[in-house]
Amino acid sequence: MCGIVGYNGKKKAVDILLDGLSKLEYRGYDSAGIAIKDKNIEIFKAKGKLINLQDKIKDKNLKGTIGIGHTRWATHGEPSENNAHPHVSNNGNVTLVHNGIIENYQELIQKLEKHNYKFYSDTDTEVLTNIIDYYYNKYKIGPIDAINRTMVRVRGSYAIAVMFKDYPDEIWVARKDSPMIIGQNDDGTYVASDVPAILKYTKNVYYIDNLEAACLKKDKVIFYDLNGDVIKKEMQEIKWDVSAAEKEGYEHFMIKEIYEQPEVIKKTINSYIQDNTIDISRSNLTQEEIKDIKEIYIIACGSAYHVGVCAQYILEDLTKIPVRVEIASEFRYRKPLLNKKGLAIIISQSGETADSLAALREAKNAGIKTLGIINVVGSSIAREADHVLYTLAGPEIAVATTKAFSTQLIITYILAIEMAHVKRKINKKKYLELIKEIQTIPDKIKNILEDDTNNIQKLSSKFSYVHDAFYIGRNLDYAISLEGSLKLKEVSYIHSEAYAAGELKHGTISLIEPNTLVIGVITQDEIYEKTISNLVEVKSRGAYIITVNPNKIDVNKVADFTINIPETNKYFYPSLTVIPLQLLSYYITVSKGLDVDKPRNLAKSVTVE
Ligand code: G6P
User: Fold this and answer.
1) Do 409 and 544 have their domain in common?
2) In a mutational test of the pocket of ligand 1, which residue from 258, 374, 401 has the highest number of ligand atoms less than 8 Å from its CB?
3) Percent of the chain beyond pLDDT 90?
4) How many independent structural domains does the chain possess?
5) How far is CA 393 from the centre of its chain?
6) Could you give the angle at which helices 403-422 and 302-319 cross, rounded to 10 degrees?
7) Is 607 part of a structural domain of the chain?
């Protein structure tokens, strides 16, 4: 998705903008542009990678200390230089970058055409630029009123950064349903759609709410509400490390983030478990409220949805509360029947995924309690959910999630144990036993990384040629197969499917041919023999079988290659089995020579429907 960065201060803006945009590359983009004000506002844009933009401006000696930049992920209009941001109003008065989508842009075009506005691009953003200009000229009351009238008039989602020719020392910003933060240090003020873009410069930020605007001067930021009244905001400190958003010697962010997992899981555990006691009071979810919960709805997208599938098994089994897990884009349009005493759990790394945010609002409108499991502090879902449990994964840069996924899993375990305990479905002994075991997970992951990486790397080079892969398992092993399969297909472009092992025979087995890759996840004591039987069925049709299992499970008669993982409690196996599956996807992709951190067509945070 698109990215925004802006700077107003003492330093050369071009360096800060380009550096910020490079930190936003991971979000996915197809063109980039900047506007820098020196004597006049100068605009430079280029299709494709950021390097093309850098090449264009390398001899320009841009000295301006105020500017805005953008990476565009095409929605309205093809990826091209013409459609790239910044866009400029007809008279050159307004220069703007925009994330999001303006839904009523056609209607606005008609309105503007009546006033002789012309359009050079196919974007909704150019329309937005001219609407601001239109109100600015019509009422002659300055930027804040032009922006506020625009916010009232447009429908859709947006984060915008605007420069007005008549206000050369200011950047104006506003947002609705699209992320934006504002930072400040002694060198100036910053705006970005995403923390990593400005983390290097400052950790002191303001969160700007929906339908608010702000004016960035060189030494201060002034916030406004929709009435144009000044509002006060507290500055907050981001806890993320700068180094977490850098590769630090690793070849790719994905492998760095895979290796960070023991550490960030430990941090997440330690923030909710102290002295063998779970404490989730920071979420403000009280024990009384927990006792009252009659149903749980887990709602999420992508990998976060897969965490939900795992959590469904664990939460239901431990708490005896019925749990349903749903894809957010389905939930939001389904008018589900929700128990008033239900709890909706929204899982999201970014806290900005449009469908998850909409699902949260649906649940709130239905009058049920909501809980977010979120990584990005201050994100929309974190702010709108009644309760929040934060994952402490730090900034995740690789598009394919690994460490955020793993910390989300941990939170669901902690929540399940706490709820089961509060509801008296497990006794103190079981509670302590589970807590003790959870704390062993970071070291067990470390062991997998130490013991298995080399073998998986060697094995992966053999599989770069495959066209199809199938991941099978039962129960929690099926849940993690969903994630393993997604991980492989999203980064390596190898077609892959996950199947509940017992379901294979109902169609999918017809796809098995000699040397088809089948990965069997086998951890659950009660049912592992059944999965092994299913693997035997595909092996006898020529499949190459990789198994992921603890040593105690005998896979000799099926496995062509075995990845052993340490033993743990049955509920926690997903945290261990996912590690080799992540490594497999990573190394297969690297051996194919693909850009593992930025797979084609994907975006890290999907803020459109
Ligand atoms: C995108 C990402 C996935 C992620 C999904 C949900 O598709 O590429 O890795 O799982 O969005 O994102 P969220 O930020 O809500 O967890």
Assistant:
1) no
2) 401
3) 84
4) 3
5) 12
6) 20
7) no
**What band does 71 get if pLDDT is binned at 50, 70 and 90?**
very high
Residue in 1, 298, 349 to alter for ligand 1 test, most ligand atoms within 8 A of Cβ:
349
**Is the predicted pLDDT of residue 248 greater than 90, yes or no?**
no
Beta strands in 530-606 (DSSP E): 544-550, 561-565
Q: For 385, how many CA atoms within 13 A lie in the half-sphere containing its CB?
A: 31
- From residue 269, alpha-carbon distances to 70, 199, 204, 260, 391 in Å are 37, 25, 26, 14, 9
Q: What is the CATH number of the domain that holds 366?
A: 3.40.50.10490
| pLDDT of 243 over the 80 cut | no
Task: Please report whether residue 609 resides in a domain.
Answer: no
Same domain flag for 213 and 348: no
Give residue 473's pLDDT band: very low, low, confident or very high (50, 70, 90).
very high
In the chain, the amino acid numbered 449 is L
Kindly write down the DSSP assignment for every residue of 460-479, as one continuous string: HHHTTT-SEEEEEESTHHHH
Query: How remote is the CA of residue 350 from the centroid of ligand 1, in Å?
Result: 7
Catalytic residues: 2, 604
CA 594 to chain CA centroid, nearest Å: 21
Specify the amino acid at residue 163. M
Q: How far apart, in Å, are the Cα atoms of 445 and each of 258, 274, 337, 580, 596?
A: 10, 21, 40, 10, 22
HSE of 201, CA atoms in CB hemisphere, 13 A = 30
| Residue 32: predicted pLDDT | 95
**Nearest atom within ligand 1 for CA of residue 356:** 15
Ligand 1 centroid–CA 348 distance in Å is: 7
Whether residues 410 and 487 share a domain: the answer is: no
Position 51, amino acid: I
| pLDDT 10s digits, 158-212 | 999 999 999 999 999 999 988 899 999 999 999 999 898 999 999 999 999 999 9
Angle, in degrees to the nearest 10, between helices 50-57 and 13-24: 170
pLDDT band of residue 531 (cuts 50, 70, 90) is very high
Phi, psi (deg, nearest 5) at residue 491: -100, -30
Render pLDDT for 105-158 as a digit per residue (tens, 0 to 9).
999 999 999 999 999 998 899 999 999 999 999 988 899 999 999 999 999 989
Give the three-class secondary structure for 502: helix
Kindly give the distance from the C-alpha atom of residue 197 to the centroid of ligand 1, in angstroms, as a whole number.
Answer: 19
For ligand 1, atom 8, name the residue with the nearest CA.
Answer: 604
| Pocket of ligand 1, beta carbon within 6 A | 301-304, 348-350, 353, 356, 399-401, 602, 604-606
Element (H, E) at 33: strand 31-37
Q: At 566, list the tokens.
A: 């340490």
Whether residues 288 and 435 fall in one domain: yes
Length of the chain: 609
